[in-house]
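ok so I'm stuck.
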Amino acid sequence: MTGLPTFLVELDDGTGTFPDDITTAVSLKAGGSITRGRADEHGSITPTVLRLGIEWSGLSGITTFNDQMIRVTETVGATTSVRFTGYVQDWPVEWPSGGDEYAITRITAVDRLARLARRKLKSMIEHEYLVDAPLLFYPLTEREDSESAGDVSGNGGPSLIPDGAGVVFGATSLDGQGAVTLPAGVSLRSAPGATGISAEASASFWVECFCDFGSPQTNIVSVEFASGATVTLRTDGAGALEA
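replied:
not stuck anymore, here's the structure
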């Protein structure tokens, strides 16, 4: 006979090495479970969920934090397998006896599938732009209650704010991600005195944008340099592009 299985419960400290063994802190009375898969053959695959009760005193000297990784390993005879690797959502503390002499935390941890659901996926065109490592990138997909548009290039570009009234954020766009509607004569621009982005003086650059015009003659985008020079991309009276 191989005997009963044994379990090892470990916490990670952010290094990915799972250095903290908290197996002895697991409360058997509080119970525990690992659920995964689908309810039936027609159901959707659900994230794997770990639920455990842990005696708070067993975590002495161990740093705990939300989204901390936890791993459960099972050994049966000479065979060891990882049963769960995921992220602790939070560390709620309970005092079952009513006093402060004994505390327990009942944790819920989820796998990577649940974490993926937290992220709002970008449109394909946004991904294409980001792959090119742009100097500045303003998707203009802010919510309707927004007051400015932000740069998502990762280079810390200044926010763009309306220079007039009537700007509508969160408008309908062709890709479904949202857009900004600008009335005639109103634009989005960086605030006066905002810090710009440094670039090589001799470097060339290109500008891309997608927009729908309400009138043929429209300024699309202007780039101002530290020297005071400005380059503006616009359409002429016939709707042709010019700079």
